[in-house]
């Protein structure tokens, strides 16, 4: 008997794959590698993004580790496996956990299960009475936010969005009710979650929603006097503006972010690369080249990844080298750009190489 969707293994997806014949081996079912290849091909033919699935990703779907891939992957899986509805493949919008807890809402807030029992109890208590805000509760929420950011590396923006929306609601209540000694800390955390919501709207092409969240994140960061979160919100907003070809706005936002000196080395290095890319798209090649040379030196001086804050953990030499490739591509140095992208991917952890956010790195390396 097939297991219900969302409860442990996704037997429906597994059964649908096994019921589909292999295009290469007569009499055999479709292998996980063949399914991943077919999904990637469908995405290339029907969307503006290449696919990045492999057999390990299909295995995670069948184990139920990833219960609901993003919209494009679900559409591709339906097409390849001949399904009309997501539910035929065991994908549902929400459902009970196979590790039931007495308070289901904590599953949504902490999908990566990083909270200790004490942290969980504290958050459950403060969720029912937001006036009892203390530092351990803020720390617990910050910890699960950091875990969800890393969960996105293995899944997609769409997969983690429900958790981030729930975290945002709680963070806003905590900020509204925090005592004076914790008010700035709570505002800073609310800013970071709003900033992350703005980031998650970008892969879905929701540009106005992204800007609204990022604008709010910047305001909250100013209220909290939090330079790191302010610079990050401005930098993310500059990235959004660049993607919609609003180069003057992107340049203004990136320059504003770059004027904040009280940030960690990873973010400061990325902001330098970002300003170089924006300058290149703005046809200011001299400035782009100067900033790129400055970024090269900064990358060499970066501290170990474990010394970067949770909000900047991805600003490592491997990722930043890939962003250098985007600058070189904008400058017309296509071969050097491809080499930088390939070098970047080779140095990344495997999870990052396959992630949704690395799709541009993969596309450039294969150009």
TrEMBL record:
Region (Disordered): 1-26
Superkingdom assignment: Bacteria
Protein's recorded name: Tetratricopeptide (TPR) repeat protein
Protein's organism: Halosaccharopolyspora lacisalsi
């Amino acid at each position: 008997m097939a297991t219900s969707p969302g409860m442990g293994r996704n037997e429906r997806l597994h059964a649908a794959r096994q019921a589909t014949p292999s295009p290469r081996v007569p009499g055999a079912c479709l292998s996980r590698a063949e399914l991943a290849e077919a999904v990637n091909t469908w995405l290339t033919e029907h969307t503006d993004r290449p696919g990045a699935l492999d057999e390990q990703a299909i295995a995670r779907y069948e184990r139920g580790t990833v219960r609901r891939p993003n919209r494009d992957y679900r559409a591709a899986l339906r097409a390849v496996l001949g399904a009309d509805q997501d539910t035929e493949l065991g994908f549902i919008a929400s459902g009970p956990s196979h590790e039931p807890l007495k308070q289901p809402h904590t599953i949504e807030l902490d999908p990566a299960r990083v909270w200790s029992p004490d942290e969980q109890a504290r958050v459950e208590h403060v969720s029912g009475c937001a006036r009892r805000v203390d530092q351990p509760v803020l720390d617990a929420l910050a910890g699960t936010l950091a875990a969800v950011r890393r969960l996105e590396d293995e899944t997609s923006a769409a997969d983690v969005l429900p958790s981030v929306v729930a975290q945002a609601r709680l963070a806003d209540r905590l900020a509204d009710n925090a005592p004076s000694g914790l008010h700035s800390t709570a505002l800073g955390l609310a800013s970071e979650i709003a900033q992350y919501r703005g980031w998650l709207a970008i892969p879905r092409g929701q540009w106005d929603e992204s800007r609204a969240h990022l604008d709010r994140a910047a305001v909250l960061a100013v209220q909290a006097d939090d330079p790191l979160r302010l610079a990050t919100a401005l930098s993310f907003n500059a990235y959004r503006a660049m993607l919609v070809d609003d180069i003057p706005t992107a340049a203004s936002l990136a320059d504003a972010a770059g004027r904040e000196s009280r940030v960690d080395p990873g973010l400061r290095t990325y902001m330098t690369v970002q300003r170089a890319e924006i300058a290149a798209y703005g046809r200011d090649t001299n400035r782009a080249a100067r900033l790129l040379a400055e970024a090269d030196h900064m990358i060499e001086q970066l501290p170990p990844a474990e010394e970067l804050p949770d909000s900047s953990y991805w600003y490592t030499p491997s990722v930043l080298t890939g962003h250098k490739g985007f600058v070189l591509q904008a400058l017309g140095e296509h071969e050097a750009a491809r080499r930088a992208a390939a070098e970047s991917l080779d140095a990344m952890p495997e999870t990052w190489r396959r992630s949704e956010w690395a799709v541009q790195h993969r596309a450039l390396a294969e150009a």
